[in-house]
Write a structure and sequence with these properties.
Blueprint (H helix, E strand, L loop, with lengths): L1 H40 L7 H5 L5 E4 L23 H11 L11 H14 L9 H10 L6 H17 L2 H11 L9 H9 L8 H10 L12 H17 L5 H9 L15 H15 L3 H5 L3 E5 L3 H11 L15 E8 L5 E6 L17 H11 L8 E4 L18 E4 H6 L3 H11 L1 H10 L24 H12 L3 E2 L5 E5 L5 E4 L5 E2 L3 H17 L13 E8 L6 E10 L3 E8 L9 E2 L7 H13 L15 E7 H5 L15 E7 L18 E7 L2 E7 L5 E7 L6 E6 L5 E7 L8 E9 L5 E3 L3 E4 L1
Parallel strand pairs: 1-2
Antiparallel strand pairs: 2-8, 3-4, 3-13, 5-6, 7-10, 8-9, 11-12, 12-13, 12-14, 15-16, 17-18, 18-21, 19-20, 19-22, 22-23, 22-24
Helix pairs in contact: 3-9, 3-10, 5-6, 5-7, 9-10, 10-11, 14-21, 15-17, 15-18, 15-20
């Protein structure tokens, strides 16, 4: 009984507690809502109509001399609200803000869904920004990621919706979007990528433009066509889910053939440089391109007018391009960096090539960086080291030389000069794949986990390299083993003139000055008598490497061709290739790195250097010595120092680092002698077998005591073994036989060694 009374008394207490908590929670919610309303609908922020409506970018970009660069014309073509085609509306609204016409600046449903998704994921994966918020962020706010900035964005988005119609907001949003390749605004993107007026765009083409915005580099339809098409299908799927298009429209758009315009921004030679500089600035400041363009920033670059003019004229010279069977000429690109500042002085391309993001297979241009540098640095090879060039099988990997020829024992210098493949792979094997890839990483060259194999030695990399990565690696050689990443940007100022970024060329040591000079000396031979000989008439010290990527599907064509070179002042990379990847644009088999790209590089240097005699030669660092090697040993694959008395014809001159030079020395010419011989006599004949030193000649003198005559036989063919048969009188008056070793010096004077009496 007591127990029941107790339970009846307990229930009201529990109920009171529950009601109290409920009232408290409701009070908190009401206060939170009122606070949110107060925060969102009050504040001093104001919409700046000029920022929304201006058709001109608010950014200044200057060259290294302070001159302003003109922005591309594609910044200034806007679309009006009434001209937005339905396909564009459907694509962008479905993808970016499907309740665009229902909310008033903030989509609370989307915000709530994003919050729940982020909580379940345990991290920030989604935002809830509407088109109105994105427009405000791109035109009014900095890239600061903070709660206050997000509140400011929300307030301004609400104001925006009060002051402008939905279609006006959509038009302003579409006009400030960045599509990559220096293209701003959907109207410009339509013209650049499809060569169409925006009113003519199909559902599929509209979906492509909507998809590009998330990552203009990754989904660029020219550079990354496959990625772009995959993204298009994603956008079409979203449009179908939102019922913006029918099932038939979806299927038709997904399967239709898309034709992308091949070239963009062909009018102004500086456009490519400017775009690359602005993209780098976005990365530096962590801004979107829209925020940078409309943020009143001033950017000082390293662009040099003289270098830019030289590169533009050379890369743009149609005479230096060979058409393929379809009549199409290759794409072309050139980039020049200053060795001292590591600033990029010039960049030009006749196609949509990005020096920071376009990745291409480097072919043999990677060999010095991936193979030779680490091997020299570790003392495994020197320029004089001998490697056997032969057919090999490295665990199933069977590389071949160009043309399928093999040359037997060759020096490292010769292998690099002629760009032989087998020695490069053997060198990587001797160094170790991990060590070689580590060297590439030290030079900021992207190495994928799948690149840890021998094909990397020949440039067969998963994703290839960028132009920035390539010239950065070679510039480290030019700078004596010191590396700093090449950059377009010298300094960036905000709207108040404050410096928000300044480039400091901090160089880190990656390899020794001795390694760098040995590499430079070998690459200089590539110019004087190797694959880059077509640039040997420039008139100053220059080092270079070429590379050619063969087409895997058709050996009659190539896909990429390089010349990467440097002087004591500048580093340059020239490329020709098939950027779009279409079969009709494959390079003719006549286009190799040693051909047109080398001629373009030669032209650019000659135009850039008004007086080549003023360009300093490569300086020889301490620790580099020139030595004479014994040629006979060298031909046998051994590195032995030549005797001090050795004639010039018996010497090979080479350079070494003092920490990795041969120590053994030949003494043949110091004391010529006969080391070993054997004689047999029978039936009036003497058989003489001489174990000869090929450095020496041998004179056999036979004196007859009976006839008093003397006969002489000279053995001077450089053989290692001689067999001589002589008529021989044996007995009381036996013939006297003497073997005299000797050699001729450079003045043709005989130097006779110790005579050996073998008989008589």
């Amino acid at each position: 009984m007591k127990e029941n009374i107790y339970k009846k008394k307990k229930r009201p207490i529990i109920l009171k507690i529950f009601l109290g908590l409920l009232i408290a929670m409701l009070t908190v919610c009401i206060v939170a809502v009122l606070s949110a309303v107060c925060v969102l609908y009050t504040g001093s922020e104001k919409i700046d109509a000029d920022k929304l409506m201006s058709s001109t970018a608010r950014i200044t970009v200057r060259n290294t001399h302070g001159g302003e660069l003109s922005l591309p014309a594609t910044y200034d073509k806007n679309i009006s609200a009434q001209d937005i085609p339905e396909n564009i509306k459907k694509a962008f609204i479905s993808l970016e803000d499907k309740r665009f016409y229902k909310h008033h600046g903030l989509d609370y449903v989307r915000i709530g869904g994003a919050m729940l998704h982020n909580i379940s994921a345990g991290k920030m994966k989604e935002g809830g920004s509407t088109i109105s918020q994105q427009l405000i962020k791109n035109t009014h706010l900095s890239a600061e990621k903070s709660f206050n900035r997000k509140i400011e964005e929300a307030r301004l988005a609400i104001q925006l919706e009060r002051q402008y119609s939905k279609d006006d907001i959509l038009a302003m949003y579409l006009n400030v979007l960045y599509f990559g390749s220096g293209v701003y605004g959907v109207k410009n993107a339509s013209r650049v990528f499809f060569d169409k007026d925006i009113s003519q765009l199909s559902v599929a083409e509209s979906a492509i433009l909507a998809g590009i915005v998330k990552s203009p580099t990754k989904y660029n339809p020219i550079n990354n066509y496959d990625n772009c098409m995959e993204r298009k299908d994603v956008v079409l799927g979203v449009m179908r889910k939102c019922e913006a298009i029918s099932e038939n429209e979806y299927n038709e758009a997904k399967n239709c053939n898309i034709i992308i315009k091949k070239y963009v921004n062909e009018n102004n030679s500086a456009d490519k440089y400017l775009i690359a500089a602005m993209e780098e600035s976005c990365d530096i400041l962590n801004l979107t391109m829209q925020q940078l363009v409309y943020g009143d920033y001033t950017i000082d670059t390293y662009m040099d007018n003289n270098a830019m003019n030289a590169l533009t004229l050379s890369v743009g010279n149609e005479a230096l391009y060979i058409a393929n069977e379809a009549g199409n000429k290759p794409d072309g690109m050139g980039i020049i960096a200053d060795n001292n500042t590591c600033g990029i002085k010039a960049f030009y391309a006749n196609c949509d090539y990005s020096p920071r993001t376009t990745r291409r297979q480097p072919a043999s241009a990677i060999k010095p960086l991936a193979c030779y540098l680490p091997a020299i640095e570790k003392g495994i090879i020197s320029p004089a080291s001998i490697i056997k060039d032969e057919a090999i099988n490295m665990g199933g990997y069977q590389p071949q030389n160009y043309g399928g020829e093999y040359y037997g024992n060759v020096s490292v210098r010769y292998a690099l000069e002629k760009s032989l493949n087998i020695p490069a792979v053997k060198i990587m094997d001797a160094v170790g794949i991990d060590e070689c890839c580590s060297m590439l990483k030290e030079l900021d060259i992207n190495v994928d986990s799948n690149d840890y194999n021998y094909s990397t030695a020949l440039g067969g990399m998963t994703y290839g390299v960028t132009a920035i990565e390539l010239i950065g690696g070679y510039m480290a050689i030019a700078n004596g083993g010191l590396y700093s990443r090449p950059t377009f940007i010298k300094c960036i100022y905000d709207s108040d003139g404050n410096i928000v970024y300044q480039h400091i060329c901090d160089k880190k040591r990656v390899f020794s000055t001795q390694t760098a000079y040995l590499m430079t000396d070998m690459l200089s031979d590539v110019v004087s008598k190797g694959t880059a000989v077509k640039m040997s008439d420039i008139g100053c010290s220059i080092a270079a490497k070429t590379g050619t990527v063969a087409c895997q599907s058709n050996s009659n064509f190539n896909t990429d061709a390089y010349n990467v070179s440097y002087t004591s002042i500048d580093t340059m990379a020239i490329w020709q290739g098939n950027l779009c990847g279409k079969s009709d644009y494959m390079l003719s088999g006549k286009v190799t790195g040693g051909g047109c790209p080398t001629l373009i590089a030669s032209s650019a240097y000659k135009l850039m250097y008004n007086n080549v005699s003023e360009i300093p030669s490569f300086s020889i660092p301490d620790g580099i010595v020139q030595v004479n090697l014994d040629k006979i040993a060298y031909d046998d694959g051994e590195l032995i120092l030549a005797s001090d008395n050795a004639p010039q014809k018996s010497i090979v001159t080479e350079i070494f680092s003092t920490v990795n030079m041969p120590m053994l020395k030949d003494t043949t010419y110091d004391n010529p002698c006969l080391n070993d011989y054997n004689i047999e006599i029978g039936d009036g004949i003497m058989h003489i077998d001489i174990c000869a030193n090929p450095r020496l000649s041998y004179r056999i003198i036979k004196q007859s005591l009976i006839s008093r005559q003397q006969s002489v036989a000279d053995l001077n063919s450089g053989e290692r073994q001689y067999r001589v048969d002589l008529e021989y009188n044996q007995g009381l008056f036996s013939d006297k036989v003497i073997i005299v070793p000797y050699y001729l010096d450079d003045n043709n004077i005989e130097h006779i060694g110790y005579p050996v009496h073998v008989a008589g």
